[in-house]
Amino acid sequence: MKDLDPNEFDVETLAIRTSQLRTDEMAHSDPIFLTSSFVYESAAQAAARFSGEEPGNIYSRFTNPTVRAFEERLAALEGGEACVAFASGMAAISGTFFSLLEPGDHVVSSRSVFGTTNVIFDRYLKKFGIETTMVDLKDLSDWEKAIRPETRILFLETPSNPLSEIGDIAALAKLAHDNGALLVVDNCFCTPALQKPLDMGADIIIHSATKYLDGQGRCLGGAVVGPKPKMDDVLGFVRSAGACMSPFNAWVFLKGLETLSLRMEAQSARTLELAQWLESQPGVVKVHYAGLPSHPQHQLAGRQQSAYGAVMSIEVEDAAGNRDRQAAWRFIDATRMISITANLGDVKTTVTHPASTTHGRVAEEEKRRAGVTENLIRLAVGLESVKDLKADLERGLKALASA
Ligand SMILES: *Cc1c(COP(=O)(O)O)cnc(C)c1O
Questions:
Q1: Ligand 1 pocket test target in 157, 208, 350, 378 with most atoms within 8 Å of CB
Q2: CA 20 to 30 Å from 84, out of 233, 284, 310, 353?
């Protein structure tokens, strides 16, 4: 992008053209700097690098050109000043909290966040004197009531997993700022291809790159995007704590970002078509997907997102009217192509029974509150044809009808 202003490019272009790396041989594909350390011309140069007098690479726990390229590209896509890459989404989430919070601080979080994020709140932040209050993602007054003078961070995922509930990013950003707190958004389900929380007032974005940024289920990774001074704190933490991204994984994510917009649009379109179709099928008692006009927050999702994403969930019942685990498992086990797994964000469509897997260890009371019923099935739609996906889901519907 010689002499061009990146601010003039669209997301699709930034995803391909930001921070292209070149070797001396002028390879067109970005090289992988698969090296733990870097060498110097002289002892004096080594000293200057270590003292910070001369910028440059020292060691891949601190900086690596391939990881740097991924960070710059994701920051450009989110419209943020800086980005720090991590070894996984959970490393990014815990690294952000441990760098930005002090003992005595308080966090307000949506109850509907990734299960392991709850473990960080419940077990680890608590151990260091940081308390978290859980609230209903959709209920602004619940957020308001939970705020204390020592609240530093409001945290959410939107759309939520697995019920596709929507948090109002602009309203929550205002609430956070009115109370001297930061709004941190886990943007894993939409990615910047569909939703730009920073443009709506959020302060910090977190990603599990493992999901849609990779897009093909190959590598674990995570990232945090936000203002430079805050990201300097986060970088300081990852340099010391060591949960840094591998250069090989960064290269896979760089390639993933190049096709992100196309994948997100195509997977969202397939999901919408399947959700509309499933809504009228016998055996399906409810479809949870913000792209459907029947979804209570359809309008809000339409304002915040350019498409509705590729995760939906359905509640099923068998021919005898049972809405239980057996009905859900019967449906899942009748599919022949779709992968039975808890992962998502892949070009391969996946099917999950949340109550017995992702939410298996959640207390019954919490499960009920989160809407994770025994007959709930999550579908993360990939890139197979809608015809073939329908044929596979029809096997599940037939199994329900014959029960
Ligand atoms: C998977 C996931 C995470 C955790 O990411 P890992 O890369 O598995 O550590 C965090 N948030 C959301 C929304 C996720 O789906």
A1: 208
A2: 310
Q: Which CATH number characterizes residue 346's domain? A: 3.90.1150.10
The H or E element spanning position 153 is strand 151-157
pLDDT in tens, 83-118: 999 999 999 999 999 999 999 999 999 999 998 999
pTM, rounded to two decimals? 0.96
Please report how the helices 386-401 and 325-334 are oriented relative to each other, as an axis angle in degrees rounded to 10.
Answer: 140
User: Does 186 sit in the ligand 1 pocket, CB within 6 Å?
Assistant: yes
Regarding whether 87 and 44 lie in a shared domain, the answer is yes
Residues 84 and 108 in one domain: yes
Question: Could you give the count of Cα atoms lying within 13 Å of 220 in the half-sphere of its Cβ?
Answer: 9
174, amino acid identity: K
Asked whether residue 182 is assigned to any structural domain, the reply reads yes
State whether 274 and 182 are in the same domain: no
Question: What's the mean per-residue pLDDT of the chain?
Answer: 95
Give distance in angstroms: CA of 208 to centre of ligand 1: 5
Please measure the distance between the N-terminal and C-terminal CA atoms of the chain and give it in whole angstroms: 60
Q: Give the ligand 1 atom nearest the CA of 189.
A: 13
**Which residue's CA is the nearest one to ligand 1's atom 6?**
89
pLDDT per position as a tens digit, 212-233: 999 999 999 999 999 999 999 9
| Gap from CA of 322 to ligand 1 centroid (Å) | 32
